[in-house]
Design brief:
The chain is of the alpha+beta class. Helices cover 33% and strands 21% of the residues. The longest helix is centred in the C-terminal third of the chain and has 17 residues.
Length: 228
């Protein structure tokens, strides 16, 4: 007996495959209907950092706590030239009703675009569907996309574990810091901590490093400094 799975895997009916975007890739562009109306991602994101995040479903408890927390921190992200965009495989009517329900019950207004991804186009484009978990609900993915449209960091959380907003904010500040100061960051770095300066690539740079009193030297290849 030939099953549906057999048909999907045969040469005549190949399964649809989409490679998952990776760090360093150009963020895939798309057009979608959102709670702010139709949007083209590249136009929405132009000259901004974007945090694009997915959630499994509207009117669910974990998702409500997460998107409410994004909304509470909206001004913080705006101050750092960062836009927020949500996604789930729900209709625009569900999104609008959910946003209003949360506003009525908690006073929190999720006033950022949420993609109505009924056809799963964006979920497939960004690898948000992990079929071993669910074929009809996005996992909790977070994509950090810089103003050049490059994916800089990706986080994935399972359906039953909420994200950590402190870590999302820490990562954004970390990415913006390494871009601004040409440095690296040590474990558990937080804004205000010392940064790691790049290791010397020539003997001349090594001698300059050894003579620099402003640099905290653990060894010539591991040195930290305060940011001005």
């Amino acid at each position: 007996m030939i099953t549906r799975k057999d048909l999907m895997q045969c040469d005549l009916c190949p399964m649809e495959t989409t490679s998952m975007p990776r760090i360093g890739d150009k963020a895939p562009d798309f057009e979608a209907n959102t709670t702010h109306g139709p949007l083209k991602f590249s136009e929405f994101a132009k000259d901004h950092w974007v945090i694009l995040f997915s959630h499994p479903a509207d009117f669910t408890p974990v998702c409500t706590t997460e998107l409410s927390e994004f909304a509470r921190n909206a001004d913080w992200f705006t101050q750092r030239n960062t836009k927020l965009m949500g996604e789930s495989i729900d209709s625009i009517h569900s999104h609008v009703a959910w946003v209003q329900n949360v506003r009525e019950k908690t006073g929190v207004y999720m006033d950022f675009p949420i993609i109505a991804d009924i056809d799963m186009k964006v979920a497939k484009l960004y690898g948000m569907l992990h079929e071993s978990t669910s074929a009809t609900a996005s996992v909790r993915a977070v994509f950090f996309i810089d103003p050049k449209g490059i994916i800089r960091l990706i986080m994935y959380y399972p359906l039953n574990v909420g994200r950590n907003m402190d870590e999302i904010k820490r990562v954004l500040e970390a990415l913006q810091t390494v871009d601004s100061h040409n440095c690296a960051l040590p474990v558990n770095w937080k804004k205000g901590d010392k940064v790691i300066v790049p290791p010397p690539k020539t003997l001349k740079e090594l001698d300059a490093r050894l003579a620099d009193a402003s640099v905290e030297m653990v060894d010539f290849y591991l040195a930290k400094k305060e940011l001005a």
